[in-house]
Automatic annotation (TrEMBL):
Any Gene Ontology CC annotation: cytoplasm
Tagged with keyword Oxidoreductase: yes
Signal sequence, renumbered to the chain: none
Name of the protein in its database record: FAD dependent oxidoreductase
Gene3D superfamilies noted in UniProt: D-Amino Acid Oxidase, subunit A, domain 2 (3.30.9.10), FAD/NAD(P)-binding domain (3.50.50.60)
Keywords assigned: Oxidoreductase
GO molecular-function term, one example from the UniProt record: oxidoreductase activity
Length: 439
């Protein structure tokens, strides 16, 4: 007897409010047994882009999600489409050499190309993808020197001219904040409405005949010895598949079947607030170029303007998803950068988990000869998950996509995983102290 699964609605986000029509609803709950080539667990960017790659190759697949499409991070993130990893390219060069740095740089930019091409191919205009660039704003002269050195290295060593330095006055004019001493603009980046994007992918896959089953948690996964197929048990039926792709990222612990993948990660809560529509004068003054903006503090905050509202986000190691903690601190941080927003009402507050990894890079690999996984986007998965889901599909079919440092030899659980929550808090507290003293 299987336990009933709780129905989880999409969180109450600005994205849900802006969604243009009824939720993606072709995804019926699985109510029969199925035999397929590949079963994909997770209907976020990773799982749906894996489905895309399989469908393109004519491989029969099904996508199973415990929740509605985009319920995970894909429907609630900040919508920043970026061409970078958490580990900088000069650091990758120092640790792994120039060839690897070049390959990783290529992969990072390919992620943005994939988002562009998905939006085109599936006509996801309502996701409002804008290739406006991303401005990294320095909070100290020391931080500015570090990001300028990085931009310089990328330009001279990788011949990438997309990163340019901005003066204090330029950053102030563009953002409307006096809180920064300068910045670096990455032109190959943009913004998107994340829930519209994931729903657009789901609609596209459904139109091409890929079944997407919502409210269908995979509760058990097993393979009898000598059986070529894996059996996935869900409340409404079993799926037998030759290959399984686990695309559950920071939500892998929803059931015990996928929980081992959570041990590859340190989940970190990321929280966001969205203001009411700004008065016209503020709207005309703040973030006039409509880019995304990040800052250089270790406990990084980021912001953008959507629908005439300020959207402000940041990592919060101390709260749990669904709790109301952390939002006041976020509002204080917003007002300290934008004092004019002191009286502006906050209309939306929400949070979700990002999957951090110990090496600060995503991991794509096979956990056994029938199971492939992709996860650990370190808070930058809009573009990367759109790319790596496809690479996971290729791996599952026995191909050898270019993965460079993202290729994982197998599951590598974080050491002392059970201590990760207190560990994260300790590190975050230390980072907050360093940020506060400007170190
Ligand atoms: C608040 C927040 C802000 C962010 N901001 C940005 C940003 O601005 N830019 C950026 O690039 N990235 C950002 N990210 C990260 C980005 O959203 C993620 O990296 C990306 O969405 C991961 O996609 P995914 O498909 O791998 O996982 P998810 O979208 O999390 O999907 C996983 C799915 O797996 C399902 N699932 C889990 N276990 C099971 C099971 N046992 N059976 C069936 N289904 C299961 C879940 O229901 C879920 O729908 C942010 C994340 C958060 C939380």
């Amino acid at each position: 007897m299987l336990a009933p699964t709780p129905k989880r609605p999409l969180p109450d986000t600005l994205w849900r409010a802006l969604a243009s029509d009824a939720p993606f609803s072709a995804g019926a709950t699985l109510a029969r047994d199925l035999d397929v080539e590949v079963a994909i667990i997770g209907a976020g960017y990773s799982g749906l882009s894996a489905a895309y790659a399989l469908q393109k190759r004519g491989v029969e697949c099904v996508v199973l999600d415990a929740n509605p499409v985009g319920w995970g991070a894909s429907g609630r993130n900040g919508g920043v489409v970026s061409s970078k990893f958490r580990l900088s390219f000069p650091t990758i060069h120092t640790l792994h050499g120039l060839d690897t740095a070049k390959r990783m740089h290529r992969l990072a930019h390919e992620g943005v190309r994939v988002v562009e091409s998905f939006v085109d191919e599936f006509g996801i205009g309502r996701a409002r993808f804008e290739h406006t660039g991303s401005l990294r704003c320095a909070h100290t002269e020391r931080a500015l020197a570090a990001i300028c050195a990085e931009a310089d290295w990328v330009r001279t060593t990788l011949n990438d001219t997309s990163m340019t330095v901005q003066s204090r006055a330029e950053v102030e004019r563009e953002t409307g904040s006096k809180g920064f001493v300068g910045g670096v603009l990455s032109a190959d980046a943009g913004t998107i409405l994340p829930l519209e994007y994931v729903r657009g992918l789901a609609r596209g896959m459904t139109a091409r005949g890929v079944p997407i089953c919502e409210s269908t948690p995979v509760l058990k996964m097993h393979r009898a010895s000598g059986d070529a197929r894996v059996t996935l048990v869900t409340p409404g039926g079993t799926v037998r598949a030759k290959q399984v792709i686990v695309a559950t990222n920071a939500y892998s612990d929803l059931t015990s079947a996928t929980a081992p993948y959570q041990r590859e990660l340190v989940p970190f809560r990321s929280a966001m607030i969205a203001t009411e529509r700004l008065p016209a004068d503020l709207d005309a003054r703040l973030m006039v170029e409509r880019r995304s903006y990040t800052e250089t503090r270790r406990m990084m905050k980021w912001f953008r303007k959507v629908d005439g509202r300020m959207l402000f986000g940041g990592r919060d190691a101390f709260g749990k998803e669904g709790q109301m903690t952390g939002f006041d601190a976020l509002q204080r941080a917003m007002v300290s950068l934008f004092p004019d927003l002191a009286e502006v009402r906050i209309d939306y507050r929400w949070s979700g988990y990002v999957g951090m990894t110990f090496n600060s890079l995503p991991h794509v690999g096979r956990s056994d000869d029938a199971t492939t996984f992709c996860l650990g986007y370190n808070g930058a998965g809009v573009a990367m998950a759109s790319l790596l889901g496809q690479h996971a599909a290729a791996l599952a079919l026995g191909e050898t996509p270019e993965l460079s440092l993202l290729g994982a030899p197998g599951l590598r659980p974080v050491p002392f995983h059970s201590l990760r929550a207190p560990g994260v808090r300790l590190v975050a507290a230390w980072y907050q102290i360093l940020d506060a003293i400007g170190a």
